[in-house]
């Protein structure tokens, strides 16, 4: 069967003011006209409004980088899926390793957020990946399989088809040390086999799996051409329009 439609998402992390976000997206628009990938920019909450306005008339979709699992209530500083949906957000990154490490997110909160994202009509980009110590100890497959299963508890087959899973080895994030295409493919394949076990072969074939971790214009093509890799979640290189446009070309 032919491969799934590529999805290339920029994770801006804590970068760009609303004015900078708007200028960036306006500059990006003409550069991605020829790309056949789905293109997403995951921007800080405060940039969502200007980014959506700037992206009008283009195929660029705006994502959030996190959300709370409750609809509303006494959760100071938090933002709900309902609020994001209302603004026109399409995707939301859930369980990024930086959130797991610095903001105490667990497999349990990740699962709650994934369920809440579906409830409010958002597509989750669910991040999984091992640390260097886990890789060195031969625990990569076990760890990633567990994270995938835990994130998808209670998620139906119809829902999971709309999810994106991002395999981001922690040792490759922001380090310039990209996983080789073979290393990335090996784990993305394990993720797809886990989806097959949880759902069915047909469903597993429909879910898009991204690779993330030091993706650049000069390594994206090789990574994205692997059988089980359907695009990338890009950090640092997504902050420059020409570089991100080149990555989006597939
Ligand atoms: P870098 O591309 O900067 O390594 O970041 C990857 C990442 O964390 C994307 O979510």
Structure description:
With 250 residues, this protein is α/β, with parallel strands linked by helices. It has a single domain (7-248), classed as TIM Barrel (Alpha-Beta Barrel), CATH 3.20.20. 44% of the residues lie in helices and 15% in strands. The chain has 12 helices and 8 strands. It has an 8-stranded parallel β-barrel, surrounded by 6 helices. Helix 1 (18-31) packs parallel to helix 2 (48-55) and helix 11 (217-224) runs parallel beside helix 12. The longest helix has 18 residues, at 181-198. The chain binds 1,3-dihydroxyacetonephosphate. 1,3-dihydroxyacetonephosphate is lined by residues 11, 96, 168, 173-174, 212-215, 233-237.
For this entry, give a set of tags:
TIM Barrel, alpha/beta, 250 residues, 8-stranded parallel β-barrel
Q: Could you write a compact summary of the structure shown?
A:
With 250 residues, this protein is of the alpha/beta class. It is built from twelve helices and eight strands. The protein has a single domain, classed as Aldolase class I (TIM Barrel, Alpha-Beta Barrel), CATH 3.20.20.70.
CATH fold-level assignment: TIM Barrel
Number of helices: 12
Q: Could you say how many structural domains there are in total?
A: 1
Strand numbers in spatial order across the main sheet: 1-2-3-4-5-6-7-8
Oligomer, anyone?
Answer: single chain
Number of strands: 8
Largest sheet: 8 strands, parallel, barrel
The overall pLDDT, averaged over residues, is 97
Spatial separation of the terminal alpha carbons: 19 Å
Bound molecules: 1,3-dihydroxyacetonephosphate
CATH architectural category: Alpha-Beta Barrel
Strand portion = 15-25%
Class based on secondary structure composition and strand pairing: alpha/beta
What would you report as the Rg, rounded to the nearest angstrom? 17 Å
Q: Looking at the structure, what is the overall shape? A: globular
The CATH homologous superfamily: Aldolase class I
Q: Which segments are poorly predicted (pLDDT under 50) over 5 or more consecutive residues?
A: none
The level of helicity is: 40-55%
CATH class: Alpha Beta
């Amino acid at each position: 069967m032919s491969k799934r439609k590529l999805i290339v998402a920029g994770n801006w992390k804590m970068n760009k003011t609303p004015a900078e976000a708007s200028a960036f997206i306006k500059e990006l628009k003409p550069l991605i006209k020829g790309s056949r990938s789905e293109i997403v920019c995951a921007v800080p909450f405060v940039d969502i409004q200007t980014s959506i306005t700037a992206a009008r008339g283009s195929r660029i979709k705006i994502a959030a980088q996190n959300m709370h699992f409750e609809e509303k209530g006494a959760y100071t500083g938090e933002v709900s899926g309902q609020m994001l949906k209302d603004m026109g957000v399409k995707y939301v990154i859930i369980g990024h390793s930086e959130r797991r490490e610095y903001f105490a997110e667990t497999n349990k909160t990740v699962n709650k957020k994934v369920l809440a994202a579906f409830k409010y009509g958002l597509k989750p980009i669910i991040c999984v990946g091992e640390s260097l110590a886990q890789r060195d100890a031969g625990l990569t497959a076990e760890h990633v399989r567990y994270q995938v299963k835990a994130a998808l508890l209670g998620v139906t087959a119809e829902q999971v088809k709309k999810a994106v899973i991002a395999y981001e080895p922690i040792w490759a994030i922001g380090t310039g040390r990209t996983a080789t295409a073979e290393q990335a493919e090996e784990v993305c394949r394990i993720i797809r086999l886990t989806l097959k076990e949880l759902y069915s072969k047909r469903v597993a074939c429909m879910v898009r799996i991204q690779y993330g971790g030091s993706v650049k214009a000069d390594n994206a093509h090789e990574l994205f051409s692997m059988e089980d890799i359907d695009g990338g979640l890009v950090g640092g290189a997504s902050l420059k329009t020409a570089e991100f446009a080149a990555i989006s070309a597939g």
